[in-house]
Structure formats: C-alpha cells, structure tokens
Model the fold of this input.
Amino acid sequence: MSTPDLSDKYPNVEFINLQFRNFGKQGFYSGQIETVLCPDDNSKVKEILSTPGKGKILIVDGSASTQVALMGDMIAKSAEENNWKAVIINGCVRDVNELGNFNIGIFALGSVPRKSEKKDRGDVAISIKIGGVQVDSGSWAYADDNGVLVSKDSLKLD
Done:
C-alpha cells in the first residue's frame, strides 16, 4: 500500500500540503492520530512519546519553525520503545544519522542542531491545522515518502 494508491482509491481524502522528509525507517505507516501543538518547545512531545502509543501516529504542530528541533534520538528511542508507529512534525528534528536506526516513521520538514528549551508549553489532543488540513486527535493518518493523508475515518487498506 502507498499514499498514492490510497489517494486514487479515496480521492476526497485530504493530504497535508507540505514537503515532509522521512528521517526514520522507510515504509508505509497508518494509524490513529494523537495531536500536539508545541511552539519551539518539545516538552509535550517528549511527554506523549514516553507513554504507550498503541500503534498510533503523533502529529506535531511546531508551526513550521526552524529555530529548534522538536525530536532527537532520545525521544525517537522512547517512541519506538512505547509502540508509536510514526511521528509527523511540522517543524524540525536533529540527530538525523541516528534517527534512521529506529523502527518508526519520523517525518519532518528539515533538521537543525539546536535543542528546544523545556518550558512545558503546548497543548495535547487539540484540533490543529497543518498544510491546509484540519487534523484532530482520533482521526487517521497514512504516511510514506510520497506524503501524508488524513481521514476522519479508518480507510480500508488492500
């Protein structure tokens, strides 16, 4: 399965109109969405990914900032250990050479070396808008190197 195949099968499903790069394991990822808004502060990302992911996908609205990284190798390790399927970041990551070693999808706009300050800013499980698409916790994401699709309902994969 791929996002182009799903887009052809479900032409009304929206895609996030941003150019993500996959820094994690290559492949196709699908799962229920959890959302977080975090302006230049990855405290909430770290907190969420240290809890059981149950195969979910975390979508992070970092407001497309290139000021700091919202995920690095230590948080990616925690995400993998806690059974998160993928993390999609409207922002940046760091430790890019290490991120490819984790068995999860890690999609972001780019990379920067600077870590974020930890001020516990942000909101979890709220409605966010990324790349022209309204994204809600509980909706479904489908992601690969072609892009990210978002659907209110689970799509049949075959």
